[in-house]
Amino acid sequence: MKKPPASIATPPHSPGEPAEARGEERSVANLRRILAPVDFSEVSFSALPYAVTLSGCFGATIYLLHVVDRPREQRAEDASRSGPEEQEAIRCGEKLVALAAQRISRRFPVITQVGAGRPFEVITRFARDMQIDLIVVARRGFALAEDSLLRDDITDLVTRYAPCPVLAVHQAEREII
Length: 177
Known about the structure:
This protein is an alpha/beta fold and 177 residues long. Helices cover 34% and strands 20% of the residues.
């Protein structure tokens, strides 16, 4: 039996402020901000058509986020960037802008952002701080996960701790309409 290409999960415990607390009713019709974390792998790009389609249906802004995974010892230090870290953030920001231009039509509003830290923490904090209504993230097979920031364990943690629903997209076997 084939797995469905996507699954939606609303986290049972969310550290962020829910839509209800913002004075909004939680419903699909309120999708205004969609977060699509990417790690520049083809698998992570497989979630973008879902984010774009939903953006078109609801007039939502797409937030493209890339997280630079900082080594554990650097996470405890001051968050200020210096030298190579700053250069990497700039390079990743440029790659996000190019990705948006290449894979997302200009008729869709897109905001790009680079963060640094533990990927699931940065993604869930960004979702909370920006009052994201839906996170659309790629999910991959275990064998594909070795070199990627968006490994299934990170997707699982995002699903568990996100302050909003999460659409976890399995690597596409077919195109979305």
